[in-house]
Backbone:
């Protein structure tokens, strides 16, 4: 017997984007059905590195990122937990004069976005981070960037939405999504049919399929950032760390475990991914170069996830080019966790009024169908969280 | 011309050694990888070289079997690529990931026999994290391997056939066993006796241990519930409940366990299909009667594929090796193969009786107090798990892990996974199979960064 339900808004994907959209839409009083094929926040939204960072993002993302920064500040009021969110600062290290020059020019370019980037000399860096092993010529510090526990934060958005009355359906895979002329119609096998006026496509690495069903064809690929964690160690690392030009990134949680990321895992199938041996070996080597204090520590767990990447490493965020009422939010290229709550807020704006004060033109889905074709920048690189 | 085989066996216990011996007998040279420095597995673990306690003292009734297994391996050493002190920490793309003697490496295999054995099934009780409290298996390893006891006034607690064996071994070794506390009742054992008599020799040993303990004045209490161990820097007392009455005994060590649980992480990382085994109350890698897993070329043998005991492990190791050879087109003795399967089936029937004699304490989760630490690595209590289940609606064990950190520490759930699943099932009022199983994640055991400082061309 097929269950039939209807709502103002149906959302495909219970990651941090879809869940925060559900939460904001419920706060505005719209009826919401959130459809998740697995458990909410258990895919990339829940297994990412946990960086809550603006520094290093392209300029086009900074207004969105800045809006997110404001929402992160209200996390406990929004979702009922602090999610281990701490503004520890994000430090980006330069290994060469050229890298340092790049950091300096990024600082100049991003003045006015409220990041207050500070360039640290090699000497200042050694004083503030005596535990740093890498030969660094300097660094850029974003004092109000931070980190959080994605395993807690992302599911908590879905729970908060449910508490506010969103109809959250987990382990519900959507097999078919169409618009029948009067409403969107979604089907999960012969168990469930959902009708809605609006449809949000927040299906992460799997969103391209839904977009294509409505004629929004995007060249999305999957990538699998690789992560590892150590046993708890005495707390020594007071920043979340990145390295200019990519490579390893690391943070230490309050309990003392060091979370490290870098390199790529591999897909077990179209749903699951795992860290791979070559990546783990490289990551371990890079980590002890960066953090010699970990020389006598252990990796106790590794993991990966499945993330959506578009050729220009920018997300798709905004209305469908073909179907009124359909709005996409996907392809965050390993950098979506911090943006998530703001993406949810933008999606809610778009549903409510068809527009948003946050600039999102750079993320239009039509960029893949209009004008000169965007070429890919080569194989998917590691996450830049 | 037949294709060259490069089979690899993981684990040099009863299953792994017999598998190796069978391959060697058919002219195949296997690689045999083992985490321990010497072959024998846990049950027939050998002391370090130079230790002089004889096998009779070390293994008791099992001395003959231990000797047979040890010499079987000694006899084929020149025809096996034997790699002791080597951990398999993951597997990917037809190669095993190794950590051996401080170095990382990989090893390709054409076929794989997974004989990874078992560890204690741990169900915590208040005070189990006190110094001086050990798992039963660990208490036995201390005796067999290092030749030392965990204490001089020892409580042996929990349930399972190992309970009486360890008590007997400790008493024989000169430790004072101040109490044997069995959560299974005498009635459980009496009801199980007819089924257990399918293996009269094993049954007789169990009866003998119990009679010996009683004859030597060792207090044996059956049908009890463990209440708590207390102490400061060391356990000093153990309390238990017997009917309505509570009792306590002074001690300086406690060994406890509730039978064994299979080490299945490697099978999981290899992609083997799992199915729930109600008798063993665990999800186990599925295999046919010959040991073929759901993954072509991967065979399972011994306690790592479900607890069947050491004798069965020897037969299963041999059977899996024969299956490997048949699948590779080599001629084998089909009569022998089916005889082994008959024996294994007989043991399986006996296992039913054993589970009845030493039943899983069904009321354990319901009686676990909220402040009981379930995951000692991450210091997560039963109350936190229950709270999480009620606050978030978590009904699946990996979800519970993500939200509470249970099973996220050094042991990666190898110690706490069973108990966490039982608590979750109780909190959700469902059977334990309904909460799923913890997904395996590499590394199977912690991987030291220090190996990278010495990394060479071997790591790929």
Residues:
């Amino acid at each position: 017997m097929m269950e039939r339900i209807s709502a103002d808004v149906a959302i495909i994907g219970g990651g941090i984007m879809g869940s925060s959209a559900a939460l904001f839409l419920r706060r505005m009083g719209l009826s919401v059905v959130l459809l998740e094929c697995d458990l909410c926040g258990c895919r990339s939204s829940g297994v990412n590195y946990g960086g809550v960072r603006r520094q290093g993002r392209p300029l086009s993302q900074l207004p969105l990122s800045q809006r997110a920064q404001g929402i992160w500040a209200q996390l406990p009021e929004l979702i009922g937990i602090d999610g281990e969110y701490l503004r520890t600062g994000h430090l980006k290290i330069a290994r060469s004069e050229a890298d340092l020059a790049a950091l300096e020019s990024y600082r100049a370019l991003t003045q006015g976005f409220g990041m207050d980037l500070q360039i640290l000399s090699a000497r200042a860096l050694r004083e503030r981070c005596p535990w740093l092993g890498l030969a660094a010529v300097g660094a850029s510090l974003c004092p109000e960037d931070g980190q959080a526990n994605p395993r807690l934060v992302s599911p908590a958005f879905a729970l908060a939405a449910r508490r506010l009355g969103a109809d959250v359906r987990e382990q519900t895979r959507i097999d078919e999504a169409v618009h029948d002329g009067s409403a969107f119609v979604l089907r999960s096998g012969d168990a469930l049919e959902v009708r809605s006026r609006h449809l949000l496509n927040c299906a992460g690495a799997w969103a391209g399929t839904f977009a294509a069903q409505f004629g929004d064809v995007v060249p999305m690929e999957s990538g699998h950032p690789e992560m590892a964690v150590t046993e708890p160690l005495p707390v020594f690392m007071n920043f979340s760390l990145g390295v200019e030009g990519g490579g390893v990134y690391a943070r230490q949680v309050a309990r003392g475990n060091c979370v490290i990321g870098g390199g790529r895992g591999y897909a077990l199938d179209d749903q699951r991914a795992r860290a791979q041996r070559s990546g783990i070996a490289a990551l371990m080597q890079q980590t002890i170069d960066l953090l010699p204090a970990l020389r006598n520590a252990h990796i106790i767990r590794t993991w990966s996830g499945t993330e959506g990447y578009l050729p220009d490493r920018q997300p798709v965020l905004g209305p469908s080019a073909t179907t009124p009422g359909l709005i996409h939010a996907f392809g965050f290229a390993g950098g979506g966790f911090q943006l998530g709550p703001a993406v949810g807020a933008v999606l809610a704006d778009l549903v409510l009024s068809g527009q948003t004060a946050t600039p999102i033109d750079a993320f239009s889905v039509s960029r893949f169908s209009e004008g000169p074709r965007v070429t890919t920048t080569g194989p998917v690189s590691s996450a830049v969280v | 011309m037949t294709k060259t085989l490069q089979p690899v066996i993981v684990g040099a216990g009863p299953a792994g050694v017999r598998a190796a011996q069978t391959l060697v007998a058919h002219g195949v040279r296997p690689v045999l990888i083992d985490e321990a420095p010497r072959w024998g597995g846990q049950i027939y673990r050998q002391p370090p070289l130079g230790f002089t306690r004889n096998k009779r003292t070390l293994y008791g009734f099992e001395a003959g079997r231990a000797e047979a297994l040890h010499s079987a391996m000694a006899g084929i050493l020149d025809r096996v690529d034997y790699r002791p002190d080597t951990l398999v920490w993951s597997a990917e793309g037809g190669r095993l990931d190794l950590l051996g003697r401080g170095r990382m490496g990989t090893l390709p295999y054409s076929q794989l026999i997974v004989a990874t054995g078992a560890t204690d099934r741990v169900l915590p009780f208040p005070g189990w994290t006190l110094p001086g409290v050990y798992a039963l298996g660990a208490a036995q390893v201390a005796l067999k391997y290092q030749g030392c006891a965990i204490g001089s006034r020892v409580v042996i607690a929990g349930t399972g056939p190992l309970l009486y064996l360890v008590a007997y071994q400790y008493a024989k070794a000169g430790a004072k066993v101040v109490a044997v506390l069995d959560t299974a009742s005498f009635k459980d054992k009496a009801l199980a006796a007819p089924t257990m008599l399918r293996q009269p020799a094993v049954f007789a040993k169990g009866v003998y241990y119990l009679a010996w303990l009683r004859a030597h004045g060792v207090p044996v209490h059956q049908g009890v519930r463990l209440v708590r161990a207390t102490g400061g820097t060391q356990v000093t007392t153990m309390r238990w409940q017997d009917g309505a009455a509570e009792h306590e005994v002074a001690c300086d060590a406690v060994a406890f366990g509730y039978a064994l649980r299979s080490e299945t992480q490697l099978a999981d990382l290899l992609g083997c299909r799992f199915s729930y085994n109600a008798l063993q109350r665990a999800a186990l890698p599925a295999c046919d009667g010959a040991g073929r897993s759901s993954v072509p070329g991967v065979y399972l043998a011994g306690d790592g594929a479900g607890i069947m005991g050491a004798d069965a492990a020897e037969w299963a190791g041999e059977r899996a090796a024969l299956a490997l050879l048949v699948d590779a087109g080599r001629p084998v003795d089909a009569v022998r193969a089916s005889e082994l399967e008959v024996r294994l089936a007989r043991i399986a029937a006996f296992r039913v009786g054993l589970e009845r004699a030493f039943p899983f304490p069904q009321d354990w989760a319901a009686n676990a107090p909220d402040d009981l630490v379930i995951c000692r690595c991450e210091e997560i209590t039963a109350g936190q798990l229950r709270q999480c289940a009620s606050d978030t609606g978590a009904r699946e064990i990996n979800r519970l892990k993500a939200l509470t950190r249970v099973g996220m520490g050094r042991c990666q759930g190898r110690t706490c996974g069973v108990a966490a699943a039982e608590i979750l099932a109780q909190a959700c009022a469902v059977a334990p199979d309904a909460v799923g199983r913890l997904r395996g994640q590499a590394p199977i055991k912690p991987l030291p960064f220090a190996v990278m400082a010495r990394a060479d061309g071997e790591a790929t």
Summary: Chain B has a mean pLDDT of 93. Chain B is about 35% helix and 20% strand. The interface with chain A takes residues 90, 92, 95, 97, 104, 106, 271, 377-378, 392-393, 396, 398-399, 402-403, 408-410, 412, 441-443, 446-453, 455, 459-460 of chain B (CB under 8 Å).
